[in-house]
Amino acid sequence: MKTITLDEIEDKYIGKKGTTERDAYDRAVELCVIGETIKQARESKSLTQENLGEISLAKCF
């Protein structure tokens, strides 16, 4: 059985790196990772999204 890497699958179905489609996909994945990281950090501090927003606004002013 031939093994296929994730990069090969992405190249085949989304497009090669440097193409518009692949750049958009990579950016979307990056944003999902950032969002999940923020969510995990927020939940580890037992904060709701509203609490985090209030804290963020308070630090701006």
Total beta strand runs: 0
Task: Please estimate the helix content.
Answer: over 70%
State the secondary-structure class.
mainly alpha
Low-pLDDT stretches:
none
Which overall shape is indicated by the principal axes computed on the Cα atoms? Answer: elongated
Structural domains: how many: 1
Main sheet characteristics:
none
Provide the succession of SSEs: HHH
What's the tally of helices?
Answer: 3
Rg result: 18 Å
Distance separating the two termini: 60 Å
- What is the residue-averaged pLDDT? 95
What fraction of the residues are assigned to beta strands by DSSP?
Answer: under 5%
Describe this structure in words.
The chain is mainly alpha-helical and 61 residues long. It has one domain (6-60). 74% of the residues lie in helices and 0% in strands. It contains three helices and no strands. It is elongated and about 55 Å long. The termini are far apart.
SSE layout:
Blueprint: H1 6-13, H2 20-44, H3 49-60
Question: Keywords for this structure?
Answer:
single chain; 61 residues; mainly alpha; 3 helices
Can you give me a brief rundown of this structure?
The chain is mainly α and 61 residues long. Helices cover 74% and strands 0% of the residues.
